[in-house]
Design goal:
The chain is an alpha/beta fold. The chain has four helices and six strands. Helices cover 26% and strands 34% of the residues. The relative contact order is 0.17.
Length: 125
C-alpha cells in the first residue's frame, strides 16, 4: 500500500504542475492544419523544388497560369513551371485569375510523372 502512495504522489504532483490554460498535447487550435503546414514547409522556388526529395514540404510563390484538369493547375514562378494538385476544399470559393500571385504550401509527389505539388494550403499575398 505504501508503494502505491509513493508512486501516486509524484504522478499527481506532475499533473498539477501543468500551466493553467495550457493546451494538452492532443489539443489542436482552430488553425492547426495551416500552422502545421506553415512550420514544416520550406520557402523555395520551383527550380529548387525539382531537386528536393519526394514528400518534401515546400512553400512556393507564383502564378496559377492554367487549369489542366479538374484539380490540376500549372504553377509558374521566375524559375520554371510545376503541376499543382489543388483540391476544391483547399481552393474554396477563391477566385483566382491567371495573373494573380499566390503562395501555395504542400508536399512534392515525385511518384507521378511529371511530378506534382499536392497543395494543402493556398493564399493570396
Amino acid at each position: 500500500m505504501n508503494k502505491r502512495i509513493l508512486i501516486a504522489a509524484p504522478v499527481a504532483l506532475f499533473w498539477s504542475i501543468a500551466a493553467p490554460g495550457a493546451p494538452t498535447p492532443h489539443q489542436l487550435s482552430d488553425n492547426a492544419p495551416q500552422a502545421a503546414a506553415e512550420q514544416e514547409a520550406h520557402r523555395t522556388t520551383i527550380a529548387r523544388a525539382k531537386q528536393m526529395e519526394d514528400g518534401a514540404s515546400v512553400k512556393i510563390q507564383g502564378v496559377l497560369e492554367q487549369k489542366l484538369g479538374e484539380d490540376i493547375y500549372r504553377l509558374r514562378d521566375d524559375s520554371g513551371t510545376l503541376n499543382a494538385v489543388i483540391p476544391g476544399t483547399v481552393l474554396g470559393n477563391a477566385s483566382i485569375a491567371a495573373t494573380d500571385q499566390v503562395i501555395v504550401t504542400g508536399a512534392l509527389d515525385k511518384k507521378q510523372k511529371p511530378f506534382r505539388l499536392r497543395v494543402s494550403y493556398l493564399e493570396k499575398p
